[in-house]
Amino acid sequence: MRLGIIADTHGQLRSGVLEVFAQVDRILHAGDVGDPAILDRLATLAPVTAVFGNVDGGTLRAKLPRVAEVKIDGFVFVVTHGDQFGSPKPQALKDAFPHADVIVYGHSHRPLIHAFDDFSVALNPGAAGPARFDLTPSVAIMETEPGIPPRARIVPLRS
Q1: Helical H runs in the chain?
Q2: Which of 19, 59, 134, 144 has the most other CB atoms within 10 Å of its CB?
Q3: pLDDT for the residue 159
C-alpha cells in the first residue's frame, strides 16, 4: 500500500501535495490542519485518517481525535500531532506508544525518519503548509507490504 503522509498544513494545501499524493491508497494527516476543507480535498484522493494539532480550533477538535491508531498491511500505525510531548523526539514517542510499528507525528515542522532497533519507525513528514523556520515544505510517502518493514521517503514541495 502507498501512503501519503502530511502534517502542519496550517490552512494551506499546496498544489504540490495533490501531485505527490495522486497515486496514494491512503492519507495520514498528523495535525495542525487549519481548515476542515483541506481534509475534504484530500479525501477526494484517498481515505484520510487525521488528528487535531495544537493550533486547530473547536471544529476540528470536535471532529478529530488527538491520537488515531490504524492497522495497515498488518502494521500498527499511531498518528499524533506530538505537541503533548513538547518538541517531540522519536524516543519519547516510542516510549508513549511502544506497541506501534509506525508513529506518524508533526509539530516540529522538521522532516525526520527514525528507525528503531525493533524495526519500528517514527516519521515526521515536515510541514506542508506555509514555509516557516527556513525549512522547505514537505510531505512523505511510505510504502507497506505485509512482512516487509515499511519504507518511507521525504518529498520536498515546490508549490
Answers
A1: 15-20, 36-43, 58-63, 90-96
A2: 144
A3: 56
**C-beta neighbour count of 95 within 10 angstroms:** 10
Domains of the chain by range and CATH? 2-156 (3.60.21.10)
Please, how many CA atoms are within 13 Å of residue 132, restricted to the half-sphere of its CB?
A: 14
Cell of 110: 522538521
Sign of the dihedral defined by the CA atoms of residues 119, 125, 126, 127, in that order: negative
Report the C-alpha gap between 33 and 7 in whole angstroms.
7
C-alpha separations of 90 from 13, 14, 37, 118, 153 in Å: 26, 27, 30, 13, 17
Average pLDDT, the chain: 96
